[in-house]
Request: fold
Amino acid sequence: MALVTLFYDADCGFCQSSVEWMLRRARPGTFDPVAYQDDEAMRLFPMVDRTLADKGIQALGEDGVLRAKARASGYCLTFLPGWAWLGKLILFPPVLPLAGVGYAMVAANRQRLSRWMGRTSCRIPPRARG
Reply:
């Protein structure tokens, strides 16, 4: 079982690239990416607010805590070798509100960022079944 189930928008090239970036750097078994658009997989996670798909990622840790947006990003970074310091910085209480503003700015422009990156469709494989 993965340490973190990561919920992302498979229709967003920037989101795809971000998840791919994390998967390349993570130790095997760290993340289980689940697209908001995967109805079958999402039925297993009724606590996840699918209306946030247009606003950012959500991460469900083994501790049962569901994190969203900047808090989810910081949390995920804490699992990446060489990037844990940045995740801890983002989650540091005086910094988190500023990280939230930065996250909101990126989220508001993610379609434009996706086009600049040349991304238009999902390249992350569907979640493994069973």
About this structure: Residues 4-116 form one domain. The first strand starts at residue 4 and ends at 8. The chain has six helices and four strands.
